[in-house]
Amino acid sequence: MSDTTALTPRLIELAARAAELLQAERETVGVCEGAAGGLISAALLSVPGASSYFLGGGVIYTLAASRGFIAGAVKPPENLRGASEPWALHLARSAVVKLGANWGIGEGGAAGPTGNRYGDPAGHAWVAIAGSREATRRVLTGDDDRVRNMAAFAEAALELLVKTLEADATL
Fold this sequence. Notes:
Blueprint: H1 9-25, E1 29-33, H2 39-45, E2 54-59, H3 63-69, H4 85-99, E3 103-110, E4 124-130, E5 135-140, H5 146-169
Parallel strand pairs: 1-2, 1-3
Antiparallel strand pairs: 3-4, 4-5
């Protein structure tokens, strides 16, 4: 059994840094996450003052959620499938458009304990950032523990957000 304390100290640290960067620029973020199950949003909301930068988030875990929350926001790429780089970017871009945010975070993967229907192993995810610049990252944990993978996917998404915000601030 895995540790069920999903909001890890690292997640909280990354969220605090992201909050600092967003607040400094008076920018906002929205989240469309899947296999992370809300941990990205929860980490961002754990920082006092979150209402100044966090516009909202959704767990886009099923086709029904996709249709209900992000359909029509952004034209999806051809042959789009979940847990892929194009899927994560589509989610991030949709968060920007649907919420009117400066930045969007997208995440899709296979938390485990088994892989997904596309053949991706447990511990596989893609995370993406959309805004004035875009970035993606593939995550491969090599782990089949669902809760650890959820936390790892959320950490990877927030690491990518921080890295992107820091690069954007230097322009």
